[in-house]
Specification:
Layout lengths: L7 H10 L5 E3 L4 H4 L9 E5 L13 E5 L4 H11 L5 H12 L1 H20 L4 E5 L9 H7 L8 E4 L4 H9 L5 E2 L9 E2 L4
Parallel strand pairs: 1-2, 6-7
Antiparallel strand pairs: 2-3, 4-5
The structure holds pyridoxal-5'-phosphate.
Length: 190
């Protein structure tokens, strides 16, 4: 989770020169922060289980594409019989209505936590593209309109035991391998 930011237009240019289709996973940013198709990406996929449904109550994915690739993609999906269930559709439909306010609120909370962590004596590095010290800060700002609420940080020089105690000490953050809902989660990466 280093939050490396790809220079999308560079990749698209290289791909187009070589007649290669560009597919991008845009789960992290959602369509509100960035639209990859505007930068020449051909197919965009989203996990709707994250920000789009927003309440950790649906497992779903979304594929969007350009007019050129829509007919063959639709034909394939129809033939494969892939169809989202009614309950998941309802959850995503409801979630989308609050996507903007959820993203903004989460980004604001994250930026406060990022600032606190940046000065904390036991924190090594905070990795978030909103920090001017992040190597891809400029690339991020070239493509993305705003920030979201996901970031990472390293804890300086601690034993596994101390790290586990640290993780067990959180009162608000849950230990969970998921994000994009309304709960605050923390995931240890070993
Ligand atoms: C979680 C995640 C997925 C997978 O999503 P599910 O809906 O849980 O299958 C795909 N891409 C990214 C970037 C993710 O974070």
């Amino acid at each position: 989770m280093f939050f490396e930011v790809t220079d999308i237009e560079f990749v698209v240019n290289q791909a187009q020169k070589n007649n290669i289709l560009v597919v991008m996973d845009n789960t992290w940013s959602t369509p509100l922060l960035m639209n990859p198709i505007k930068h020449g990406v051909d197919v965009v996929i989203h996990s709707a289980s994250k920000y789009l449904s927003g309440h950790s109550d649906a497992v779903a994915g979304i594929i969007t594409t350009t007019e050129k690739y829509f007919p063959p993609l639709r034909k394939y999906l129809m033939m494969a019989g892939i169809c989202l269930g009614g309950e998941e559709s309802f959850s995503i439909y409801k979630g989308l209505k609050t996507l903007g306010v959820r993203l903004d609120t989460q980004a604001n909370s994250a930026s406060k936590i990022i600032e606190l962590l940046s000065y904390h004596p036991h924190v090594g590095t905070v990795l978030a593209p909103q920090l001017i010290t992040h190597p891809d800060h400029c690339t991020y700002n070239k493509y993305y309109k705003k920030y979201n609420g996901v970031f990472s940080f390293s804890v300086a020089c601690v034993s596994d035991k101390k790290r586990d105690e640290f993780l067990a000490g959180f009162k608000i953050f849950k230990l969970a391998y998921g994000w994009g809902g309304v709960d605050s989660c923390i995931i240890p990466l070993h």
